[in-house]
Amino acid sequence: xxxxxxxxxxxxxxxxxxxxxxxxxxxxxxxxxxxxxxxxxxxxxxxxxxxxxxxxxxxxxxxxxxxxxxxxxxxxxxxxxxxxxxxxxxxxxxxxxxxxxxxxxxxxxxxxxxxxxxxxxxxxxxxxxxxxxxxxxxxxxxxxxxxxxxxxxxxxxxxxxxxxxxxxxxxxxxxxxxxxxxxxxxxxxxxxxxxxxxxxxxxxxxxxxxxxxxxxxxxxxxxxxxxxx
Amino acid sequence: xxxxxxxxxxxxxxxxxxxxxxxxxxxxxxxxxxxxxxxxxxxxxxxxxxxxxxxxxxxxxxxxxxxxxxxxxxxxxxxxxxxxxxxxxxxxxxxxxxxxxxxxxxxxxxxxxxxxxxxxxxxxxxxxxxxxxxxxxxxxxxxxxxxxxxxxxxxxxxxxxxxxxxxxxxxxxxxxxxxxxxxxxxxxxxxxxxxxxxxxxxxxxxxxxxxxxxxxxxxxxxxxxxxxx
DNA sequence: CTGATGTCGACTGTCGACAATTTCTTGACA
DNA sequence: TGTCAAGAAATTGTCGACAGTCGACATCAG
Lengths: 229, 229
Known about the structure:
2 copies of one chain form a homodimer. Chain A is mainly α and 229 residues long. Chain A has 2 domains: 18-80, Arc Repressor Mutant, subunit A (Orthogonal Bundle); 85-226, Up-down Bundle (Four Helix Bundle (Hemerythrin (Met), subunit A)). Helix content of chain A is 68%, strand content 4%. The first copy, chain A, is built from 10 helices and 3 strands. Chain A has helices at residues 18-31, 43-50, 54-66, 85-109, 112-128, 135-152, 156-176, 183-188, 191-198, 202-226, and strands at residues 40-41, 70-73, 77-80. In chain A, a hairpin with a 3-residue loop joins β2 and β3. The longest helix of chain A is centred in the middle third of the chain and has 25 residues, at 85-109. Chain A binds chain B through residues 17, 55, 58-59, 62-63, 66, 74-75, 87, 90-91, 93-94, 97-98, 101, 155-158, 161, and chain B through 16-17, 55, 58-59, 62-63, 66, 74, 87, 90-91, 93-94, 97-98, 101, 155-158, 161. Chain B binds a DNA duplex (30 and 30 nucleotides) through α3.
């Protein structure tokens, strides 16, 4: 039945929406660090492990490429993206730009109801802010706050870009191996953002976000540089 | 510097694979309006026409999808993207955010030399600003100015996002069928931007760009709404 | 020992065929 | 005449195969 000689980290699949499922599996494996940056994604090996043909694997890989997790080199194949410290820094710069802009739109236009879901998410953040909880879970909760805030801006384009940036951010943080700050600090530093949004205070919103992301940027890129030779 | 001992070296032999060639062809056809928004991109038909198999066509289509020109519906296939007036408006909002941010970085950090290429491009813009010149050419010249400005910011991420937004913008403008303003006006309105950049004046830069793109946004979305049922 | 050249294996690029799904057609029936 | 269901046609989804390309290693001249 199974091929016992496959060092597969994957389980076989059914028959519907293959491409998306393969993409999700691979994406998960990359984010979780099972596949390390720079390592090769062999179409044939993955296809064999998953019990599908190369075609859907290939399409999934191209999907992941467009979401920034995978790097494609013509005639060589797909590799887990290896993000440089410089790229990471550029990424954070863009996050600041996007999130500040989106937040300002929230300040100006979003109904109060939309802010409630942010409050909930801060609760969720506190709930998982403990050293016992999986680091990925904590990071997802963090990202979810930002995701909701940006969604509240009402421009799906901001959300689309953020989703991509978030995935790459996660990839980098997981490479570092630990969160970029004290778990509790992460939860706390979201509060001023929500407060500023509620007060409809543009200046406070801008500085709260610039501080929050700026600190993360500082911490993460610093750690990240240590891992580069 | 150069290697003088290489008597005759050859051009890199542009031999990109089928996928890229197909993608370029299709992209061109879409931008030029040969394929109208909403129309189906049949894999088999395109493959037969181009004398290739469906595989590279499919991959090319997915590439175009990730660059926003094509819309993919599972089990139904690929269609030329039909952008709504609302999406177009959101798109312009993002362009303002990106371009203002990039320009501010240019103001703060870019060397004067980088601004020269912008001057050249304004010359090019004037050169093609005539009713005799192909409308697509004019638009490309316009976009090229913005592209160079953003490239001067030094953050490739801004450029990547802009490239995508630019393609979609072109698609919309070509749908309208004529430029969004007097050709000469388009050239003129770039001058204040360059002036502000040269003067390293953040406020002037911001307002010049907000005005320029804001006007385009107003004109294009207005025209675009007329075409919607 | 060093650097260039030949060979080999593994992988990607592309293809044609078949299965699954959607869409179109048609005709029965109220 | 309009509706709907069943079958036909067309299109996408997936597959296995083969050819083209790349990188590594062995081989050989200097």
